[in-house]
Fold:
Amino acid sequence: MIVFHIAVTAAADYLTRREGHRRAHIERLQGLRAAGILIGGGPAPDGKTADLFYRLQQPGQLTHAIEEDPYWVGGVWTDYAPRSFTQFVEPWEHVPVVLDGSRKVTLVEGPVADRDMAQFALIELRGAGRVLFGGFFEGGETLALVTTADAPAAVGWFRDTGFWKPDALTARPLLHVL
Structure:
């Protein structure tokens, strides 16, 4: 299995354009998650981007996973950029779907200082309830979904381990839908 992070760009009129497609989009995502294909994700609070995490058997399946989505077909999404993880820490469980924007989390990104130890630290952060899931890309970049909406605290959890390059860590908000 290959785990992909998909960075999605939305149309400028995302909020109005999505309404006619939202129900079908959410139902499709729930079906993909039930089939073990979609790990999770959601939009940025401003609706300009989204981050989704898919588990696929082959890279060729990625096009179908994205371009058959009602948001893509309906022009709600206008572009996407996939990256495959070389290592991935799976979530303990799937969270319920939340559509009201109340589950605010943070995506933390940045390079590792010590990849082997960072992997252990990421697993420990998940065990402590601070990280939901995440992993490493080729070259040692990390992307992890963190349980707090407090970006400085989220970056601090990674910085405090000593296994990431602290000055290169970034954080951005996400509404964790599923």
